Amino acid sequence: MPKTVKSSIKATIRRQLFLRLLLACTLISIILAATVFFIEFHRLGQKIGSRANEIATRFNDETRHLIDDPELIHKAALQEKLKALSIAGKLNLGMGRLIYSAIYDLSGNAIVIEKDKQCGYEKEVVDFMASLDHKLPSGAGAYHKYRDINDISHVHIVYPLTNRKFERAAIVEGLFAISSQTEEQVEKRILFSAFGTVGIVILTTLILYPIIMMLIRRLTKLTDNLLQANIDTLRALGNTIAKRDSDTDIHNYRVTVYSVYPVTTSC
Hints:
Elements: H1 3-63, H2 75-88, E1 96-104, E2 110-115, H3 122-130, E3 143-149, E4 152-162, E5 168-178, H4 180-242, H5 251-266
């Protein structure tokens, strides 16, 4: 095989290999970065949800006697308890604050509501909470979801309340506004982790590229050797067949030359 052809083939292989490795590196980096993003926000949600569950459990223990009878719910006492819950929801080591909390009956009707007076977007919060269905499906437990209100990240927390017979009697909901400091910390961890994973992928690609090229060169050399061996085998086979008559082995080459010559001269 001519050297120019070999060089062209090798250049094409290098280019295709580089492009494919670059594409794989980009896809893996995007997937890993997205995974880190979801893991970090899931971790934050779990942290807030765990703290909320602790507070809601204590709140339920303190209010069971107040919701024993759906017809005789002590709204004033529940309002005071909810106010204390709102204060406890602000003691969260700078993660954010509880800006809205409410207790609903099993039909989804509000019993008592407590709002943070310092919230600068109270109307948007009230409209958002009014748009929700406050009926908790039978058998469903506590849960939390991320919500975006007024371009601020929130965690919506729902927790079922039971009476002294441990029967579900009401639902407490809270809207927790994540502080900008917490968001910045999460974003920094995401960027740090994402750049770390991307760096690892790129480093792995840079390590693999010369190894793969070395293997390709070795494979190309073995292929050339195999091709040459096949040609030598065909040449020996042709000479052997031509040897049936004395001194006629060169006749095969003459036939080849005479066959190719008219084609080359006509071009």
